[in-house]
Design brief:
GO cellular component, one term: nucleus
Organism: Cinara cedri
Number of strands: 44
Distance between the termini: 75 Å
Number of helices: 29
Oligomer: single chain
Largest sheet: 7 strands, mixed
EC number: 2.1.1.37
Radius of gyration: 36 Å
Shape: globular
Strand content: 15-25%
Structural class: alpha+beta
Strand order of the largest sheet: 1-7-8-9-4-5-6
Main location: nucleus
Catalytic activity: a 2'-deoxycytidine in DNA + S-adenosyl-L-methionine = a 5-methyl-2'-deoxycytidine in DNA + S-adenosyl-L-homocysteine + H(+)
Length: about 1200
Amino acid sequence: MASRLYAPSSSKGTKRPLSRSSSETKTKRVKTANGEFLTNGTKHNIEGTVKCKFCYQIKPEIVSIPSDAEIECIVLTNDVLANIYTDKLDVISHNITNYSIYDENGHLCSMDSGIMERNVPIYLTGYVKPIYDHDTCIENGIAVKELGPIFEWFLTTYDGGSKVIIGVCTEFADYLLVEPHQNYKKYMTSVIEKIHLSKLVIERILDNQESDDSTYEDVLNSVVNSINPATNIKFTEEDLIAHAQFVLDQVIEYDSTAEYRFPLVDTQCIETLTELSGAVKPTKAPRRRLNIRRRNTVKADISKREFSKATTTELVKNIFENMFAAQLDNDGDKESEEVLQEHVKTVFDDIRLCKYAFKRPPKSNKKIFIVAKQDSSTDLIIGRIEYMFQKNSATMVHIVLFMHGNKTILGDTSDPREIFLLNKCTDININNVIQVVDVTYKKPCKDWFNLGDSKLEDITEPINRQEINTFFFQFQYNDECARFEDIDSSDIDDTMHDPNENKICRNCVKENLEKKSQIPQLLEYVEKKKDLYFFYNFKLLNETYKVGNFIYLQPGIFSKTSRLNFVEHRSFVLNDTKKNKNSPLLKNVDETEYPEYYRKTLENSMRGSNESTPDPFEIGEIIAIYVTKGDKKNIKAIIRRMYRAEQISNDKSLDMNMLFWSDEEFVIGYNDIIAKCYVSHIANIKDPMAWFVGGPDRFYFKTKYDFLTGSIVPEYKLPSKARLVGMEVYVNYNYSYVKEDKIQYIPAHKKINPLRGLDIFAGCGGLSKGLEDSGLLNTEWAIESDDKAAAAFKLNNPNSTVFIEDCNHLLKLAMSGRKTNDKNQKIPQRGEVDFICGGPPCQGFSGMNRFNSGQYSLFKNSLIVSFLSYIDYYRPKFFVMENVRNFVSFNKGMTLRLTLRCITRMGYQCSFGILQAGNFGVPQTRRRLIILAAAPGESLPLYPEPTHVFNKRSSSVNVQIHDKKYRTNCKYDESAPLRTVTVYDAWSDLPEITNGANNEAIPYKHKPITHTQRLLRYPKNSFAESILTDHICKDMAPLVQARIELIPTRDGSDWRDLPNKEVKLSDGTITNILMYNYHDVKNGKGPDGELRGVCDCASGMACSQQYRQNNTIIPWCLPHTANRHNNWAGLYGRLSWSGFCSTTITNPEPMGKQGRVLHPEQHRVVSVRECARSQGFNDSFLFYGPIINKHRQIGNAVPPPMGKAIGHEIIKAISKKSQMYK
């Protein structure tokens, strides 16, 4: 039985009239292609014409009815039709061909014109055939007239089939429409278009749903590459926008039949489509307007996709099932807050009722854990008594504080019996002690790495849960950064100090050492000159600074401090590093020609600009260190200023780490110092690029900058002392003639034996590529279900085993003991995998802080759970999980908390943080959640410090969950060592191409221009191939391409710069002029009284899309909805050479989420290679498949430079552990 999807009812609200009188609408002049001016009345207002009262048409066509046609009730009695019935209860269904639909005046009309919603009867004529006869000819058909009235039309397919069928309902039967009459075909064009568009959209979303949340760009790509069956040409974006309301209604209808599935209407795609088109999102599935006799359950015609059931270990499964069991009510719909709170209650509530008082020191010398109240606060604290003492005749106890899991980032997901050691302590009066509790330290099992996929009964419980006042701890917790780390052995000592001995608290010792490190200590006295005492070095924050060291200083410090030499001279004015050479200053334009330009402001036109990007750190050389006689604590330093290349030159070819020597000297305070950096004269290093990539914070210089004249001094005039800088450098070089105390030890990137890695949800391999570049791992295995992305991974990792299959199936095989999969590929065994990385695709679930039953079903079968089960089964030494920034806010943090709970339950140390890819040398804003985890006994890595400054508006990496803010360990929050990377830095050497360029291998034509390009083309300091691959771009439809060509090549240009005129397209058609017939109450009228609205909704009335305008240079949908969407700033936007890209997505579309996807100068969208470079992929990295697959591989990837920075930090952690055991 074919299932059916019903067509939507009419939109709600007041209907607008077909036309307005000239007195209602102000005449607006628009320019045609030949230069003539027309008024809007010429196009829209037709005076003296009569409309049909039924179909509202001014010049209707008359229906052609067969001469031998009979009415419906007679036709249905024909033996050919009557003999096919088998059940009196069956709905009678027939086919009808050569059909036409008409009103009571005999006028042809479309059933999709809104006529049915106005309760106007319409009828069908044609030739009726039995349901089994699908022949389109009229032979053997029975002529019919006045079939109806039609009270409903519907869509249906045969289950599993691809052909969409349209049906209509009358009082007596259903009729499936086979072929329209020749004169009626044009009336079915819109109907057929919207039906097929709905099918394409729903199918595309379903195809993506298991792996990711479909974006507008994903769906649009499927649409524009599909043939419109009504016209036999490809669909366009205009078609999708025009029929958005119908598509949305069908999505709602499809959702109404779903069980335990993420609603399609909540996907990114539908949200964006709704915003762009101004369509109204119904709250429930639409139903027909008439009294329908048959109240069948409506089922979607597109086959249901079943979710891949997650393969889980018992531990992971237990975590989620226990958590959700407390949330889900019996009916699977309601949520019980009381039950949830009972499940996670802290047990302190029971302790409050205890009358126990702790009055005297215990006889045992074992440290005691207590619950107490502090001051007047009602919150209870838990702590471990370190010692007791007397204060003002009162007995006091000094306790190290612990935090209950409910108060950590874990929140409600925590184990009610688990507490966490804090790096804090306090004193309390013994009378405030409420209860003594039993606390046990949970040691990691010796065979921890072999416990993956253990049975729950085999996992030893640290406490007896039958006893109320029992707790355990296994981690130290940093409340500011949400870091769970192993506890130092000294913090586990549970022996109480003798009251007669010194009162020692290790937290106090650590705190005192920290405070001491913040006070500078002068070392190696040199001499006294007048009232100044000079020293050779000093120590601050455990770092020693000595004369000759180079240091980072706050940006702009040299303009705030006094120059020590050349006091009477004024220095030359430096370059403004933030100055935009092509600034898009607003100008006066003719609003008749550019009717949307008024929407532009500097604030919303400069997206992707570096105007607010901070400068990198200033750099100086310590020449002297001194204190004055009366102020010996205030250490001063005399600094030689080093100039950055961008401060004195506009030459974009200069390296980012290139400096200029100067004779300028300044005095600074020790508090102005940020950190050390390392500088050498170019003659003292082997190669600038090798020097740069070999370690952090490395710079070089060639010549001197004369700050008085603003000129660069020839290299041969460089002072001899400057040439010696770097002679003392020791970086695997043997300078045996250099004195030991002169050697400048330069930290290099540490090297280790690479770990054996598994990349899950590998994509093309961006994350693992970066980790490999750091030297951390060899990716021996990868899992990717998309065959094109998997092929790309294999191209770049030929020695890796790539599993092209569902990760759940592979894990199931591994857990069952299989050594190989169905393709005879060797499955990694436990003990072989040292490292796992991956970014499990994550649905948005709901906006609630807890799940209902459907969302629970989604989550427990989600790929996040699968990823965690891989971790639990293989138990790698380290793992990295990556996801979108919004992961932290899904379900108000519940998704993140559950993930961290699972990780800590396994015994992993872990932390989470947000990193901005732009801070690591890519010209793109891309914030990502990164979870770092280390096995017990390993050292938990820190998050990498930014290497490049980036736009401040896009650099917020702090996370707020409920009322608590979390940050990473990073200290460089205001600036960074290097300047930002721009679009020019990344793309300017690429050859010029045109729209639709498809040559996958072309010559470079130019040598690298910038530092970034040298890194991308010579990734290992070896000469790259002279052939450039994948510099190809999408072929845009004629109308879209015409718009692109009319977007000015200046910064900040977008759709609001488009002219309103007729244009001849490349396919020979001519565009329409967009008509402004309505008053815009928000924006008023133009300077000459021009109307600014394209729909009644601009006047505050109900929106009606029946007068939508198509084929216009200015897309009708943008001014239609601009007032409520920030004027759609950035759509059809050009990128700026001096700016950065929006987050690179899977499909560059001018009206997509990314918006700014036009090349700064060329009339096309960005190419595959340009997108790859914006992500930091070097030019030797290959992608696979059609162009849309390549874009998707890039857009889904983690930028390799960010992965590389993470890898260096993990290597540091591994080296730190090695040092501890030496």
